[in-house]
Write the structure tokens for this entry.
Amino acid sequence: FKKAIEKTLQKVTLQESKKELDSLLTLKFQSFNNVIYSRA
């Protein structure tokens, strides 16, 4: 039972960190685009 809880926690943590990573990538991509547009 304890192992199941740990597994669920790991899954949630993985999903959360993936969300954070996605938003970080989106932010980076947006600022990258802004740089390109401001130079155009």
